[in-house]
Each structure stands twice: as C-alpha cells, then as structure tokens.
Design a protein that fits this description.
The chain has one domain. Helix content is 63%, strand content 2%. It is built from 16 helices and two strands.
Length: 314
C-alpha cells in the first residue's frame, strides 16, 4: 500500500478528525516552547552558575523553531490563519530563514519528495563521505545557504523555479524587511552597549544547529528515490521530549503522507499508518550509527542505492 492507497482507505469521519485544527492546542505548545526560550534567556542574562551551558539549551530551543516554521507553512498548528502567519514569521526571523520564501521551497519539496532534479532539498546532496558528513553536521553550509538566500532575495535575484514569478517582488520585500530588522537589532545592541543578543541568540544558534542537522538528516537520508511517501520518508521513534521539541515531526512519513494533519494529531495518524510504514528507525542515535559506516562507500554506493531503501525497518 502506498500513501495514496492509504488516504483512499480513510473514512470521511477519520479525515475530519485527523485534520481538525485547534488554536488552543497550538497555543499551548507555542507557550511552552517560547516560555522555555524566555526562561533560558533570562537565566543566561542573569549569569547564573554554569550559564554558558544554558547557551546550548537555548540553541536547541531556537534552532528547533525550524519545525514550527515548517508546520506554520502548512497552516496546521493553529485554526486561525493569522496565528500561523505570525508563528511562521517569528520563527523564520529568529533562525534567519525567510518564512514566505521557505513556504514555496517546502511545498516544492512536498510535491517532488526524493525526486532528483525536482526536490529542492536534493539540490545539496546528502553526505557521502566523512568530510561531507562532518561539514554537514557542523551547520556551516546551512548558515551560508540562509545568509546567501537572504542577500540574494534582498537584491531582487530570487530566481528559483519553485518561486512563482509574480511573487518574486514579495520575496525581495520580505528579505529587505528582515535585513532592516536585523540592522535595528544590531544598532540597538551597539547603542545600549550590550552583548545580550550575542549570548541569548547568535552563539546559541551556532551551538544548536549541529543537532538540528543530525535530526533532519534522518527524515529522508538513505530513503528511496520513489514517489511513495511511506517509503521515501522516515519515521523515527524517539522520546516525548524530542517529539515535543520538534513539534511531532519525528512522525515524518505520516506527515508526508497526509500533510494537512496538525502536529498534535500525528500520533493518531501514526496508529493508522504504522503497519504500512516502510522506513523506520529506533532513535536518532541508531540512525546515525547505521548512516556513518554506510558513507565509507562514497558516491558510488549512493548511486547503487537509488530507487531502493538503504535502511530497511528492523
């Protein structure tokens, strides 16, 4: 059964229940995530004992706002459209990723998941040797990508195929507004002679990004180059803390199979899809323990793996 067969097997009542949105459920999770960010920031500013360690905690909380941006791009965390828009913009600004541009990027990824030449996530190939792996995990390439996207868009050179021609001026305006916000933040910090933004935002982002890279690599890394969402995406079984931090996106095959399901309904969707999932892993540590030895084969091994699942479920 592929994802289309699965969706066709759902009753109208199941579809209604799975796609029902709630502002309250979304706001409760949002309050928890941003509440922890605010609390950790306050502890760093107060220089409590071992406060530098808290910068890593802050970094994890900040970089995983990517999963909120991702969800808000689908307009699923909240029933109210304006809440989804606000959440997308706040999270996008905090992680230096233009939210409206990302929505076009991400929708192209959903339309062409794991299809070489069409899926924009495959524009940068997955690491196939140790140098590529370590560079990928460092987070350096993604920061270069974020900043270059922001600068290119601000300069009016947004020419990716997945961005409609009629929306490219809006991408330019979005990037220029973001640059203006960052400039105001910088000038404000200089005027107040405070390094607060460095310690509660910039350094934490750098510290947290490697963990987001490790997490994201499991979503499609070593999955088949096929159209079946139950085969080209991986569900990773993990603990409740990671699921909460990532807004339930470890249920990734489920999300790709039915992307209009809100994050708080994904556990329910998983119960229905569990027997049909073709690629799963028991934890992110196990995924990377299996991925790392596999990169010794380099690009030739990756080519041989095209069209099939490299890591079958155990």
């Amino acid at each position: 059964m592929d994802h289309r067969d699965f969706l066709a097997s759902l009753t109208a009542e199941q579809r209604r229940e799975l796609t029902r949105k709630s502002d309250l459920r979304g706001l409760m999770h949002l309050a928890l995530h941003f509440g922890l960010i605010g609390m950790t920031a306050a502890l760093i500013i107060a220089r409590v004992p071992f406060w530098p360690v808290l910068m890593l905690v802050q970094g994890l909380l900040l970089v995983f706002l990517f999963t909120l941006l991702h969800e808000a791009s689908h307009e699923t965390p909240f029933r109210s459209r304006w809440l989804n828009t606000v959440a997308a913009h706040i999270s996008g600004y905090l992680i230096l990723l233009p939210p409206r541009w990302f929505r076009y990027f991400h929708f192209a990824h959903h339309r062409h998941t794991q299809i070489p030449g069409k899926d924009p996530e495959l524009a940068e190939p997955k690491p196939e040797d140790w140098t590529q792996y370590l560079r990928h995990v460092s987070g350096i390439p993604v920061w270069i990508s974020h900043i270059s996207t922001l600068v290119r868009n601000a300069a009016g050179r947004c020419d990716e195929d997945f961005v409609p021609v009629g929306k490219r001026q809006a991408m330019r305006n979005e990037a220029r507004i973001m640059c203006a916000v960052y400039l105001v933040a910088l000038l404000g910090s200089i005027a107040l002679n405070t390094p607060v933004l460095i310690f509660v935002w910039l350094i934490p982002l750098l510290l947290g990004q490697p963990f987001l890279r490790l997490y994201l690599l499991a979503e499609h890394g070593r999955c088949a180059y096929v159209a079946n969402m139950l085969e080209n995406s991986r569900t990773t079984f993990t603990n409740a803390l990671v699921r909460a931090l990532a807004w339930n996106m470890p249920y990734h095959a489920e999300h790709h199979a039915y992307p209009t399901v809100p994050f708080y309904k994904l556990p329910d969707l998983h119960k229905l899809t569990a027997q049909h999932l073709l690629v799963t892993e028991n934890g992110y540590g196990r995924f990377h323990a299996r991925y790392a030895p596999a990169i010794n084969g380099g690009a030739e091994a990756a080519e041989r793996n095209r069209g099939r699942v490299c890591f079958p479920p155990r």
